[in-house]
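Job type: complex structure
Entries:
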Amino acid sequence: MDMIEEQFDAIVIGAGMSGNAAAYTMASHGLKVLQLERGEYPGSKNVQGAIMYANMLEKIIPDFRDDAPLERHLVEQRLWVMDDTSHTGIHYRSDDFNEAKPNRYTIIRAQFDKWFSRKVREAGATVLCETTVTELIRDAKDRVIGVRTDRAGGAIYADVVVLAEGVCGLLGTRAGLREMPKPQTVALAVKEMHFLPEEVIEQRFGLKGDEGCVIEAVGTTSRSMAGLGFLYTNKESISLGIGCLVSDFAAMVESPYVLLDALKTHPSIRPLIAGSEVKEYSAHLIPEGGYKAIPQLFGDGWVVVGDAAQLNNAIHREGSNLAMTSGRIAAEAIIEVKSRNGPMTKRNLALYKAMLDKSFVVKDLRKYKDMPALLHTNSCNYFTAYPRLMSQAAQNFMRVDGTPKIEKEKATTAAFIKARSRWGLVSDAVRLALAWR
Amino acid sequence: MHIVICIKQVPDSAQIRVHPVTNTIMRQGVPTIINPYDLFALEEALRLRDTHDGEVTVLTMGPPMAEDALRKALGYGADRAVLLTDRYFAGSDTLATSFALSQAIAKVGETFGTPDLVFTGKQTIDGDTAQVGPGIAKRLGLLQLTYVAKIASIDLAAREIKVERRSEGGTQMLKSRLPCLITMLEGTNEIRRGSIQDALCAARSQVLKWSAADAGIEDLTKCGLRGSPTVVKRVFAPPARAEKAAKIDTAEMALRDVADELITAIFTRQPALEHELAFNGGA
């Protein structure tokens, strides 16, 4: 086979949220873009829940609501703290979310990513699936100038390579652009898709039409590990899953499916999925290291975006919007450099980081920079002790059994002090407040 | 050399389920693939093209989404793809399908050069009839070589092809004049992985979409449901077998006793077998 002497303005590796955002933005500004995806189709490897935030997509495709495959717009969010038999929750539901242009949607990524990829192609990019990039090609000055794939036929060249390869970042790691993510900075999430008739879902969650509800739960289901359970309503299915840090799974010698089973059979969750048919079981890693885990974001001839750049806000469970935004900003930086006829050098591409630092992406991650470490080292308190105490306190408060209220309150206070000591309580609260600030 | 290969987009039968109440195939959410038998034909066509030069045109009839299958075929290295799609084709049985495809092949021939070879897979995994290939051959007046295991040689100057055909008695060596139609057996080759150039070409080339009129089909009564005499009388799912596998604990038994027990178990289940074996002088 002949070598291709074809030069692209940019090669985007990966067709998830960040890759599609980057490819779309560059292609719609007239850049010659090649996007390479290893999956059979975009979204085929995706596991996300998933909630999609409209604002970040509007900045890329303003009229996405016209034809994007959206499941339900969220009108209710439930945050639960669970022990083995109960949950204490804060629910927020508002009719204000039934707006002309809703704020958040549940989506099924396998469908959504196909749609996004169609937009990328319509914008003029060339998209190749089932093509794995095996190597970044560098010139004598160590600049990235192209890629090699697992297909025969040689190398493909570009002025800049956008690494949107996802959380594992094998390519970037192999190329020495970054370190391999560490077990304590990535979570392993497992998810099942439970299919139920539309009416049943609407009935169980008190929804009508396209309204949707999500539940996010911390507590004893994660077996003292830093973890989060989630339940998202789609049109005709419920995504149910749980994720915990890989290092915790290893230390606890626990299997992810055990946690998912515990969540599924929890008395608060079981009736919500009763009678459903499970059609899909999947697992994926999620970057959870936060601000401190962000690697070098740019270099000579390359930028890294999305999960591959560890851009995920674990505290707010926001990932895809950081991915989309970083992809868009990287693309805008590249467009800017190109419009000045500048080379794609490390110096010029620093513009990407400067722009990203000013955005909510880095600002949010910086705000919570101490959170991952705190929740990780203190996971048994935040994910088991406190949920138990909270459940006991709530039950104590609700149950009427002739005990004078003053004694009940004393018992609750005593339970907290016994479990964590006065100093422990103050210190946990202060540390949490500081990390949150 | 111009080769036309007919493919079909089918639901991935490994992931298909039958509705327990209506007995219909539940296609929703089931991924689609190129009929696996067709891939052997496609690879054979591509190999002939690679060694003898020429072009491979991939043709399919189906709904608009069948374009995905054609794009995949282009990714393997096919030169051109034609999607025959029209609501008139909906509900086609093998008779109507072979009619429409043969008309389209004639049109492909007019437009891009008369094909020297037409390939199809042995059969599809969803219909399993193996009728469409021979149906096309008959309508186009092509000689047909079915169940071909190997293409031994092709002589374009002499307009001759030699193939090995699997038959019940063994392997037949057949010689045919060109043009002809070949239905390819499974396991004869392995579909290639297209090069990066093939993939780039596939991403950039247009799939031609032909309506019935585009394909020059005038007699619409031969198309779709109207042109399909096949009537599905009843659909049923085979009942799941209630019997469980029995386990014989052999650890403590002499081999002769194991054999005896096995034979007794088989004969109890299949009383006719004992008689037959005795009749043939076995047992």
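Summary: Residues 2-222 of chain B form a domain with the Rossmann fold fold (CATH 3.40.50.620). Residues 142 and 166 of chain B are 20 Å apart (CA to CA).
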